[in-house]
Design brief:
This protein is an all-alpha fold. It folds into 2 domains: 50 residues, no CATH class; 69 residues, Winged helix-like DNA-binding domain superfamily/Winged helix DNA-binding domain (Arc Repressor Mutant, subunit A, Orthogonal Bundle). Helix content is 73%, strand content 0%. It has 7 helices and no strands. The longest helix is centred in the middle third of the chain and has 26 residues. 9% of the residues are buried.
Amino acid sequence: MAGHEPGQRLRPPVRAARQHGGRRLRPLLAQGRAAGGGIRRAVDRVRSVRAASDRERRVAERGDGPAFDEVAEAVEGRLEREWVRRCLRRLTDLQRQAVTLAYYDGYTYREVAGRPSVPPGTVKTRMRDGLLRLRDCLGAATGDAT
């Protein structure tokens, strides 16, 4: 009980009633129930959130399977890779070659220009046009307005 120390006697209900202006204890309890409805709901909510948090912690400590987020991220990654592949297929051969060499093979635009012996400005233009088309295609695939 709040304010109760070991070895201290609890106040009998008569004294408690006197300490509340001489009103009887039973009406005080009834008022507490009426006013305490919101408090009880708040306490129930706190207990519910704490229990959910404890459940999640226990599941995470067990580690007996991938978390939901890992599964969702894996699925999302597969979908994104498929969208990129589809959009790459829509580029011209020259744009696809320039973008693939630069972004998948790790070449600089000068190294890309040296492979098929094309001026660097032409490679930059192909890459820019290819990336713009990829952006538009991926924006349409994912529903993003660009």
